[in-house]
Amino acid sequence: MYVGPEKFKKLESIDFDSSELIAFLESKKERLDVYHRHVAVVSCHLNHTEHFSNFPFYMNFIVTPSNEKVVGISISLPMSLTPAIYKMSDFGKKEEFVRLCGELIGNTNEQWICQCGIMKLPLKTRFVAVAGDETFLNKEMFSEKVFGAESFSFAKRVNGRVLEFLEKYKDGQYKICRTIINDEGINFFVVDKKVPDEFRALYSEVISLLRKKYGLSPAKYYPISERVIGSFTLEFETMFSNAPFERVDRLLEDYERIKSDIAKYF
What pTM, to 2 d.p., does this model score? Predict the structure, then answer.
C-alpha cells in the first residue's frame, strides 16, 4: 500500500531486514505497557548543510511486534516530538538503511545520520508519503480520523503542489526571511543584513510590534547560523490556502516602510 505524491511512489518497492528491530522490541517486551502499540523506528536524515535542501525530510523505517513493516517520509524527526522509550545506539543494519535512503533520493554518496528507538503509537509527526502493510496503515489512519489527528493520514493530502511548497520552504528562504516548516507551523526568521548592529534592538522591537499587529506568535527556537532580528509563525494549515504568505507580505511591507521612515533620522 502506498499513500502520497507520485514523486515518492518508489517507497512501495522498498523492503528492509527487520530481524534486528524485532529482536530489539522483544528484548523490551516485559517493560512495555500495551506491547502491541509499540514500534521500533529507524530515522535517517541528511546533515543540516547545503545538502539538506536536496532532501529536507526524514526517512523512517518502522516495524511492529507482529513484523508489519512501514517506510515513510516525515516532516519532523519522530523522536524529537516524542522521545524514544528505549534507544539502540549501535545497530548492525545501519548501512542497509543508509543504502536504501541513498537509493530513494538517487544519490548514494550523501552522508546520513541515523538513530533507532522504540516508540509508542501514534507517532506525532506528519508523513509526506508512506508505504507498507495495508492492514496496519488502514487501521492507523482510521484511528487518526476518529481522534482528529494527522500522522500517516497526512500523506493523503500531499499532492504535487503541496510537496513543492514543502520542499521549497521546509528549510528555505522567503524574501528577507529564513523559513523552517515543522509540525507546529511555518516559521519565519527575519534576517535583514542591511541593519547595522547598533540598530538591531530597535528593529527587533519593530518586528515584535508588527507580529502582534498581525496576530502571529513568535517562532520557536531553531538553530540557524544567521543573526535573527525577529521571528513569527504561520499556522500549519496556511500552506493549503491560495495566498499562504499574505500576512507575511503585509508585515514585511510595513517593516520596510517603518525602516525607511526611521532611516530619515539617522
Answer: 0.91
